[in-house]
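Review form for a predicted model. The reviewer records the input and the model, then writes brief findings.
Reviewer: anonymous (R2)
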Amino acid sequence: MKAGTAQKISNAILSCAAGFASFVFSLAALLYITEFDQKIVAALAAGVFCLLISYVASERPNSESARALAALSDRLLAVEDGDLVSPAPASLRRSMPKLAAAVDSLFAEVRTSIENAHSLGMYDPVTSLPNRLHFRSEADKMLSGASEGMKSAMLFVDLDRFKMVNDSLGHARGDQLLIMVANRLRVVVNAEHNGDAKTRPLLARLAGDEFTMFFSEIGSSEEIERIARRVVVAIAEPFELCAHSVEIGASIGVAISPDHGSSIEALMRAADIAMYHAKSRGGGQHFLFNAGLAAEHQEKVDTEKALTEAVQRGDFVMAFQPQMSLVTGEVCGAEALLRWNHPRDGLRMPNSFIPIAEKTGIIAEIGDWVIGEVASILGNWHRNGFRGRLAFNISPRQVDRADFFLKVRQAFADADVPLSLIELEFTESAAMEVSEAVLAEIASLRDDGARIAIDDFGTGYSNLARLRAMPLDRVKLDPSLIADIETSEKARVVVQAVIQLIKGVDCEVVAEAVETVAQADILRAMGCDTVQGFVFAEPMFEEEFVAWVGNADRGARSVA
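Model under review:
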């Protein structure tokens, strides 16, 4: 029988009993009481009795519900103290069993949701390994609980060529590969475990294709390097992925406590630095963090900070290296070269800071300064009669900005400089990777008079179809190509082939870093159009350059 129906029947019986009692009482009063005032008193007593019985019949269920709801309120307030386990109160079960069942079900769902959220927050959903948060927490405990005098070690594992798998096979296949990698790493960890739960190695996936391993107690650096080599070998074995044999590798950074840091954060930072060094050496190997690497990293950090301040202070200056035509022997232009007037180190060359500026993104601000400076300088030269072109380098980071080409046009328009006096130099890799939209913008600049060149050709990846289709005027040979042409027949054959390739796409050939007359003669015989280098003139600051151009004559400058 339903609880509500039972309650109604109970109240009906109680009301009937009250009515029957009132009837008996009234009948007795009529039969035995004869005085009028006594009859009035009896009627009042009977009425009060009926009212009392009716009140009890109506309030009985209300009082039970109130007590049950009060108990439920206390139970809900207990959640503040973390109580998600206790069942619904017994009084609630008696008076409102459905509500009690709903409360128990709600708390069960809450507990399940919390457990799922905890699992998602602490474990990687792809590999089921601990994630970064879980790893940091557990590794901290393991490091603090390590035996006194024992060393701990951190391995930072980054997969080589993993992006190629994602790009070629898709992210779903990439996730499958990550699971396979995690399983191989588990095998290594289990093999290195000595059975003691306290010293069991901790394996985690931090993000993307980055994994880490922490060993709370190791005997020596040789031991952890042996483990690192084992990981390298394990990951180097081909993976069978959906009928594809996939070969990747692993670059591993190793850091040891307390030598390289006494906290998990310090060890992770040191291992990360070592890993990037291993990757820069070609990958597929491990590298142990050391003092030299720490000093090199600190130098990079200091350079990053100093570059930001240099842009704000205007510590950069431009040097100019003339370019000579091997056909006419005349100065046909110059290249603007960036120099950093460092407040402590003095004049610094581009190779000491440009790579760092590229990585940090501050190269875009430096590039804006270069464009403005070149426009201002060319404006002055143009008004003084100099008609040679001035080339300057463009960073890939600059081209990625939507307003780059508009800024170039605006800067030279404001300085009243024709675009025919500028030459934009793109690196070989950047030229091969730019989008069709960027190519269209480059072509538009070229149509309006600007010259377009590829710098450092011969060191990167070249798509010959792109090279043929790209709006291009000149290609500059990388200095490494011409370094041995005086003494090496193979070097001459390579340079000759490259020159013919460039000529085949109807572009001029420029050789830079030409240091001897013999090199210039060989290049001219091969068909090279223009040279720049110490054999001709060193880079000069503006005042010296203007004087040099004004005072030199064709015969004095010719290396013919």
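Findings: The CA atoms of residues 21 and 559 lie 136 Å apart.
Further findings: DSSP finds 22 helices and 17 strands in the chain.
Recommendation: see findings above.
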